[in-house]
Write a structure and sequence with these properties.
heterodimer, A: mainly alpha, Arp2/3 complex 21 kDa subunit ARPC3, 7 helices, B: 285 residues, Thrombin, subunit H, 3 helices, 12 strands, 33% helix, globular
């Protein structure tokens, strides 16, 4: 855990700051889900326990910095980590394609869940907003998760959290 | 159980405990904003100080021209201020003679805009690099020289979340300005952009700036286009007279009960870099 913690803090901190500072998607006000992408990377590549911890903290940061009901993103990302952990037993998902697929599916689902809970709390969110956002978030989520995976793997390999043999294995998968 | 696994289990249980306890969730959210504040502030500093300087190097001629224009504007504003001073003194004297209460004291705190839209983009809001440590409070109005930007919705020690008047959830008590003697004060409620009623709801490209919607105006008063819309001060949440925007057109609603109109905001929300929070206490702005 000692060598993982700096990488986690660095990835989550960078993702949180970039997600806030970067402009939203083109022709849509939603932001590229970089924090969720980091959580997806951990779900795909690392053991379940670190993946769950990162998912919860990525969710806390997303909700806290995005004005979303507390726990929404944290619970969703933790569930996603559990589902991916189950999938990893039967399908080799730890690859760039797997990351892109998870980002393309997970990011729109997360946005729709946020919209649903915000509407239940009385926020005025037109139906077109999450639907249009889902179309744009799918490629954005795929790209973001792919990039988060590349950066995360680079940092984790340098920190010794991943072994080169695992890298070879995942490239093959 | 290995030592590393025990540490991860402990971290997971601690995080879950923090999420489960109701009081800590809001605290966690504020902690997140405070934690990201240095990074956002650094990015804003680079954007305004370093990138701004680099851009100016490429536009030295433009800088000289802009400097001349600004000097001329400063001279004009000093002249305006000098001409307004006797009027202000006269106003103070008249208020004293009429025994009117003093104006609500307020001061303007300049705030750098750190980011817009938050981490998700659901809210039309901006985050400012000032918080309750600088005297800001929830509900304080935020302005630029052009007009009202929004109200502070949430605070930490160093940051403030400002809900823009363009947010669909924004509601502001407004009135038309100037007040015509024959019609009296015409008041309404200004709804944020993106508000769509029932069957009229339709998807639109969201990058198009939606006009705000001023509802519940007096039905029989037909205001001319470009009428100024200012805050009415009703409800006490905002001071009266702050410019919000300009009325584009108006129509009687389908039930014939009231008039409603489209309002173009006075502020360019795409170019917010420095805004002012109107804080209670201190000298009048």
């Amino acid at each position: 855990m000692t060598s993982s913690l700096p990488v986690i803090v660095m990835l989550l901190g960078t993702a949180a700051a970039l997600q806030c500072v970067l402009p939203p998607l083109p022709v849509h006000p939603l932001k590229v889900p970089l924090l969720a992408a980091v959580a997806f990377y951990y779900a795909l590549e690392r053991p379940l326990l670190p993946a769950l911890v990162v998912a919860l903290w990525a969710g806390i940061l997303t909700d806290g910095l995005g004005g979303v009901p507390p726990g929404t993103s944290a619970v969703f990302l933790a569930l996603a980590a559990l589902v991916v952990a189950g999938l990893r037993q039967v399908v080799p998902v730890a690859s760039w394609t797997g990351a892109a697929l998870l980002g393309a599916v997970g990011a729109p689902l997360l946005a729709m869940l946020q919209a649903l809970l915000l509407r239940r709390q009385g926020a005025v969110i037109p139906f077109a907003l999450p639907l249009g956002g889902a179309l744009l978030l799918a490629p954005a989520g795929a790209l973001a998760t792919g990039c988060a995976r590349s950066l995360g793997r680079h940092l984790d390999l340098r920190a010794g959290n991943l072994t080169p043999s695992k890298e070879v294995e995942s490239r093959g998968g | 159980m290995a030592r590393g696994t025990r540490a991860w289990v402990a971290a997971l249980l601690l995080t879950l405990a923090l999420l489960m306890i109701g009081g800590t969730r809001a605290w966690l959210h504020r902690l997140a904003r405070e934690g990201v504040y240095p990074l956002e502030n650094g990015a804003a500093w680079i954007r305004t100080r370093i990138w701004g300087q680099v851009a100016r190097l490429w536009t030295a001629d433009g800088l000289v021209r802009r400097n001349r224009a600004l000097e001329a504007e400063v001279e004009r504003l000093r002249l305006d201020a000098a001409m307004l001073e006797p009027i202000a003194a006269e106003n103070r004297e008249l208020r004293r003679q009429l025994a009117l209460p003093p104006r609500v004291p307020a001061r303007l705190v300049p705030c750098l805009v750190l980011s817009s839209g938050g981490a998700t983009g659901w809210w039309r809001q901006v985050r400012l690099g000032r918080g309750h440590a600088d005297g800001l409070a929830v509900g304080d109005p935020v302005l630029t020289a052009d007009g009202l930007v929004g109200r502070i919705a949430d605070l930490t020690a160093s940051t403030a979340e400002v809900r823009l008047i363009t947010d669909p959830n924004s509601r502001i008590a407004c009135q038309l300005d100037p007040v015509a003697p024959e019609t009296g004060v015409v008041r309404g409620i200004l709804h944020g952009a993106g508000w769509r009623a029932g069957p009229a709801a339709r998807p639109e490209l969201l990058h198009v700036v939606d006009p705000l919607r001023l509802r519940y105006l007096e039905r029989d008063v037909v205001p001319p286009p470009r009428t100024r819309v200012v805050t009415s001060g009703l409800g006490g949440t905002l001071p009266p007279g702050l410019l919000v925007g300009y009325l584009l057109d108006s129509e009687v609603d389908e039930n014939g009960l009231y008039r409603m109109g489209d309002v173009m905001p006075a502020v360019d929300f795409g170019a917010l870099t420095l805004v002012y929070a109107m804080v209670s206490g201190g000298r009048a702005p």
